[in-house]
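2 proteins. here.
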Amino acid sequence: MIAEDDPLLREGLALLLRAESFDVVATADTPDAFLRAVDEHVPDVAIVDVRMPPTHTSEGITAAVEARRRHPGLAVLVLSAYVEQAFATELLANGGSRLGYLLKERVGRVEEFLDALRRVVAGGTAIDPEVVAQLFARTRPDARLERLSPRERDVLALMAEGLGNAAIAERLVVTDGAVHKHIRSIFAKLDLAPTDRADRRVTAVLRYLEDVNRR
């Protein structure tokens, strides 16, 4: 399911996904049409533009939240023309699975876009690297974060994008064992105990973003 008011991008996405053997059950150019289509077709994943008619502010993200309320298993990949701090932070803060936030320019990098989409459908998260970079830059220092080495910060940034250990190892050109070691160290330095029932990967990322929510 695609919700995008730009006809060129909407149809382009539909063509791309069909070429990659995705079944595009419907497209919509307004939030109301999107919600009606979701109720009718109950898709596995929805690709939703943040800004949609009539005001082109937050209608898309509001519709996506409502769609998830109606259909809790719905995977949602949000597209935005630029980094919108409040939406990206809320996406991580909710701690939900099957969620993604990408800049629209990422669609042009077809393999990266499809990898993110498949990751979201599979139950993971996918956060645009530029979103992660900007949010990290805006976050005030935390004493616990100062304990991390530069490489551990690199690993944590890739965790925030939603990458698994193998993908992180490939990106950093290190072994899986090295990534496991760095992640264990990150959890220890951030005081995240092995017995903690919360998702320690998500909690570690939120330690970077928690001050943003207070601004």
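next one coming up
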Amino acid sequence: MEKNAKKSQMDNVPEEAEEKDDADRYRAPALDKGLDILELLAEQRAGLTRAEITKALGRNASEIYRMLERLVARQYVIRSEGGDRYALSLKLFALAHRHPPMERLISEALPLMQRFADEAEQSCHLAVYDRGNLLVIAQVDGPGTWGIAVRLGSRVGLVDTSSGRTLLAWQTPEQRAHMLAEHTKVKGEVAIDHAALEAACEQVREAGFSRKDSQQIFGVTDVTFPVLGPSGQAIAALTCPFLKRIDDYVAPSLDEATQMLSATVQTLSMFREDGAA
């Protein structure tokens, strides 16, 4: 009888209450604190001080201090040069490269890249930041007899390429500093001082894209637009290494190809902003 009474009582417990009991039963307070910090910082483009984090989360200063130190030690969070502000590092972004969302980005990008290549009659490639330089994760050839193709899986320079400077231009100062601290030169990469690089990134940001002569191949004009994520930061860069025809064939001009690439990236960035990845 007693067992039946207990069973009857359990049967009367609302489903929401059972779910709440399960959530409470499997709580991990330390993990919750760490995730709270990461989720809070994900919404802050300029980072937060420890006091601001403590106030926003309604926790005591000592537990936030310990958790922040662990997140910094594990490189999920970076501390500003002055040591007073904290922001997300790119580690979570790097981990995402090994996860299906990166495959989803590629699958969404490839049809758009193919359409651009067919209409502009130029090749294009998509690159992301990865461990100190750029990784080419997708590449489509143009339909013509000639073209410039960057081999899939290639690593290209962070500071001397249109793709690299575009990615750097659409990061927070803390994230850009972290990327440059991790920077590893690729073969042939041209060095540039910090002030000149900052100026170049600012020019790209103001223009909304990068269009300049390639520093790797003579006769090529690199056109690059950032693929923006939900936070407004660049998660990838789409580049067209434009080749100008000098024979009698009339192909889309550099300006026309630039407009086509812009439209392609706007569609792809909207995909990211919709949270589909």
